[in-house]
Amino acid sequence: MSRVVVVGAGVGGLAVAARLAVAGHEVVVHERAEVVGGKLGRYERDGFVFDTGPSLLTLPQVFADLELGLDPVPLDPVVRHVFADGTVLDSASDPAVFRERIAAVMGAGAAADWERFWRRARRIWAASWRSVLRRPVSPASLAALSWRLADLRAVAPGRSLRALGYRHLRDPRLRMLLDRYATYAGADPRRAPAALAAVPYAELAFGGWYLPGGLHTLAEALSARCRALGVTVVPSSPVTAIRTAHGRVSGVDLADGGVAPADVVVANADALSVYRDLLPCPGRLAGLADRSLAGFVLLLGVRGRTPALAHHTVFFPSYYDAEFDAVFGDPGAGRPARPASDPAVFVTRANDPATHPDGDEAWFVLVNAPPHGTGWAAVDWQRPGLAAAYAEHVLAVLARRGLDVRDRLRFLEWRTPADLAAATGAPGGAIYGTAGSLVRPRNRGPVDGLYLVGGSAHPGGGLPMVTLSARIVADLIGPALTSSPRPRRARSKPGEFGAALRPNSP
Q1: Are residues 110 and 102 in contact, defined by beta-carbon separation less than 8 angstroms?
Q2: What NCBIfam families does the record point to (predicted)?
Q3: What pLDDT is recorded for position 438?
Q4: Of the N and C termini of the chain, which has fewer Cβ atoms inside 10 Å?
């Protein structure tokens, strides 16, 4: 039986802990915070309950073999898009329904364009699922991809998501809709790889889902599953270093001065923190300095009901590029990163009585923001007065877009990238690690017995990708030698969770 220490109880850490426990390993998870879940956070005030991290579940099939007892509810629309000219477009998980909605508000030509793009996105998804998302990344695996010419043509290395949009979509509103998916990976669509077209395909082909009570219930289910399998989860137990001996890991140092011995260490921490702080490795730091977007968040307790809002509603500016120019900065032009003056505003309002008092609403409001720090690509979010002033500014932006909620507030709180960095250890409060990179840091570390799991490692950020990361790492580690053979993984069946699975689907 191998002793496994998992550093961090985020979704990736808990998912890999559960899988390794099933495989017969002795697993202990050390979490720096008082609660589990990592970025999948929860906040309560005056009867209002907020998900402070992800608010949308996609590809729920990838959680099936963890036996969490999830009961996700499909969302329609998945997202409501409100454009500056007043156009409202509701996305749907049925491709035919979404085409009809596009045709109704943008015309038959726009719908035909989307269908052409959709065929390309399907090829990108199939290639990604077949060759990238379920396998460890390595020079050998990338070389193998280069021999699959159809997959390579579909993924289109060297082409940006923006370029793909211009190739297929003539309506600037549809291109804006596509650009937003680059921000799911924390990236600028003008530089993000075209392979990110797999993200809207996965969301719209397999559906967007909500967990009653909030998405934080996923972390609670994972934690309960781990404990039922005999995993020890230790909160308020920061890890300060990863120990090695004779070229392999030997354990971890704890902030309280203790040492936890281990045959295997799985780091569910940001790759930058791992290779900069826990196990200094300058060679692995290359390419990790390009941090992803962070987010500035408002938590609003709102009086009354707002019929104009769907579960998720995004309000676009008239000129999206100004936001990207602001939040990413431009050192060549001498423009440092700064809060966007006219950002896209993403509002999550769950129609779930478990999340708000009767007759009121809990709003989670998100705008893209530079990470916290110094230098041209960051902003000092702890500068006195900045957060309060920007909170008022975001409310004013919403008012200009036709949703003035300022006289309906029961309370207003904000969360800055500095707050996320303090709560989760994410460097600068960046949400997704390296921004928009097609190839994330490898799951296998530079010394024997070290593995990386989570959104900053392969295959990337987002709940389903993090869970696939956990599956990859568990398979790399394998079953304990003294354990009985692992039970065969349950595969999702057509219709499970109400979603019909497509070819090449999870």
Answers
A1: yes
A2: crtI_fam
A3: 57
A4: N
Name the nearest CA neighbour of 17 among 332, 296, 322, 233.
233
Instruction: Please state, in angstroms and rounded to a whole number, the distance separating the CA atoms of residues 334 and 311.
Output: 39
pLDDT grade, residue 493 (50/70/90)?
very low
Q: CA-to-CA distance for 142 and 84, rounded, in angstroms?
A: 41
CA distance 81 to 423: 31
In our burial notation (b when 16+ CB lie closer than 10 A, e otherwise), range 356-371 reads beeebbbbbbbbbbbb
Q: In what order do the strands lie in the sheet with 259-261?
A: 239-245, 248-254, 259-261
Distance (Å, whole) CA 203 – CA 93: 7
| 64 within 8 A of 492, measured Cβ to Cβ | yes
In what helix (H) or strand (E) does residue 216 lie, and over which residues does it extend? Answer: helix 216-228
Residue 100 parent element (H or E): helix 95-106
Residue-wise pLDDT tens digits, 338-392: 999 999 999 999 999 999 999 999 999 999 999 999 988 999 999 999 999 999 9
Q: Which parts of 338-427 are beta strand (E)?
A: 345-349, 360-369, 409-415
Give, in order, the Cα–Cα distances in Å from 498 to each of 209, 488, 492. Answer: 10, 23, 11
257-276: average pLDDT:
95
pLDDT at 435: 53
Give how far Cα 214 sits from Cα of 113, 222, 385, Å: 35, 14, 31
Q: For 407-434, how does the pLDDT look when each residue is reduced to its tens digit (9 = 90+)? A: 999 999 999 999 999 998 888 998 876 6
DSSP state of 332: G
Q: Which residue has the higher pLDDT, 49 or 461?
A: 49
**pLDDT exceeds cutoff 90 at 499:** no
Nearest Cα to 436, choosing from 290, 275, 337?
A: 290
Q: Which amino acid is at 34?
A: E
Residues of the chain with CATH 3.50.50.60: 3-41+212-288+435-498
- Write down how long the chain is: 506
Contact 23, 478 (CB under 8 A): yes
Q: Which CATH architecture has domain 3-41+212-288+435-498?
A: 3-Layer(bba) Sandwich (3.50)
N-to-C CA span, the chain: 30
**What does the block give as tokens for 377?**
């690509």
Interval 36-46: pLDDT, tens: 999 999 999 99
Burial class (CB in 10 A: 0-12, 13-18, 19+), 209: buried
What pLDDT, on the 0 to 100 scale, is given for residue 480?
83
Rounded distance between C-alpha atoms, residue 325 and residue 340, angstroms: 8
For the chain, what is the mean pLDDT?
A: 89
The token duo for 318 is 């008239």
